């Protein structure tokens, strides 16, 4: 008897439903889901989705079998959120993991995004209201959060921070421990002729910190988040790097000074917002900068890359996940993402299981993904159910 896996199921009316002890049901569902779908329930005429089965399935006494070494990392853009809106499947998936089951069983999860631009606390507040589940900073990693692990090297030195609105990221960087943080708007306010094509808005002028930059030896440039003014930022990055940190001092002796470190926090060329087609990301900005710098100097500039899929970011994430799995030596970690280049490549390299969803950047019409996931799913809820089933079987 051929069955269509995706078809919806017919289930007894709710009251009848509660008569069936979940464990028994879950047992059966788990092993013979096709059989149940085709044979017993079709007769009853009520339709529900597989997900509802999953939800019911997981609220049953079957949960006890769920290994306690299980934890999830969720990408945000294209998986939980598109633009300003939460995706319907996101609320379902997270609320279930957040103990929204009659046993109040919580399955640890973190959010791991290449996004950024505001402080972790502020972003968690916003995400909690968008997703309807409390997201705490100790379960949240954005592109620049990993910089907390390198701040010691630069704490007391002048650094240039790029990206975000106004001086929002100055405050975030100071929160990480950077003590001398400047922005490209500060430099433009100091000397407007450095980039004559942008007049500071009143709001921007209110956010600047002015000083005599001919006396400021920058030790590093950090691209925290997607720059708002690529042209201004690329001009000033070239100025700072070519003068080995002190803008305007293009003297031979500059080469005595240590080259300026350059750090990018997000390599994504594209990402999925609420616009139909994917948008350019910080990775596109990096390519633009390197193209200009190479045209000016003949070579691209060496830099450090953080963000998914880098090892540093996945190690940082694994450390955070393990804090939610005390005493577990071999955790079973799942990464659910929409971008094969960042989410899947990084998770595979970290030895995690990876699930690629079709609700974001990845479009199966364009052929197989550049990095093979452990599994592909329509959306995050289906991905979570599949993972739970795997864990049940293991
Ligand atoms: O700017 C954010 C974008 O690059 C991707 O974000 O959440 O999909 O990792 P996310
Ligand atoms: Mg994404």
UniProtKB/TrEMBL annotation:
InterPro entries membership: CDP-alcohol_PTase-I, HAD-like_sf, HAD-SF_hydro_IIA, HAD-SF_hydro_IIA_CECR5, HAD_sf
Annotated SUPFAM superfamilies: HAD-like
Gene Ontology CC annotations of this record: mitochondrion
GO-annotated molecular function: hydrolase activity
Keywords: Hydrolase
Pfam families reported for this sequence: Hydrolase_6 (PF13344), Hydrolase_like (PF13242)
Hydrolase as UniProt keyword: yes
Domain of life: Eukaryota
BP terms from Gene Ontology: glycerophospholipid biosynthetic process
NCBIfam families: CECR5, HAD-SF-IIA
Protein name per its UniProtKB record: HAD-superfamily hydrolase
Lineage: Eukaryota, Fungi, Dikarya, Basidiomycota, Agaricomycotina
